[in-house]
Request: fold
Amino acid sequence: MLGVMTLHILGHGGILDSLNILSVNYNIAWLLETCAYCAVDCFMLISGYIGVESKFKYSNLIYLWLETEVYSVGIMLLFMVAGIKNMRECITAFFPVIMLQYCFFSMYIGMMLLAPVINIFIRKSAISVVLPIVISTTGAYTVLSIANENIFGLGSGYSVLWFLILYMWGGTIYKVQKEYQFNVKIVKQIVLVLLLFSWLSKIFFETMTIKLYGEAKWGLTFIKYTSPTILGVAIGLLIMFVFIYLGS
Reply:
């Protein structure tokens, strides 16, 4: 949650856009952005981790939908009382999922509708079956997304497909952890290397393209939700915090 807040402050808050490119403050701000970028992926990993062995109830989705509906309409009414009226916003407030009022929530609902199928696959299959499928599928999607982040309809990470991949990873980690113990020290080192690589790749690409083309390009190649390095950081954080939570 702290990561999501950081992303919104730096992005929607206008901090990143207000800094001179490749300045010290710019690079520091992007280091914070890179560290926080895995936050959205983490939420989906957690959903898979705790959901794979949970008893799935569609009634919970309906309750979550209604809860979102109440907040959506309630906030809209507050804006209307304050004199801020927008007909389109009024309409979308009543249909938050269908009208993509909250993109994250719409994708989450789509993912959870298919979660029972994934749960059965992970629970009933051996690790030797599950792990190669998850790794190969994810590898293809993430590597190819470097060239085109919307390939296979990934939608830069805001898609049901990407959420499903993350959910599968969360469930797979839970299954693996029941039989094997992760070396958290090595996990921490991998997370640090992936973070530094993602951040330094931005500085490198922008420095080189400014010299070659006169403008910064490809800076976000490894800083996006579908990036293999950002996904690796998210998986590493899940393992680390589970380790802390279990008091191992």
Notes: The longest helix spans residues 184-213. The chain has eleven helices and no strands. The chain has a mean pLDDT of 91. The CA atoms of residues 111 and 160 lie 5 Å apart.
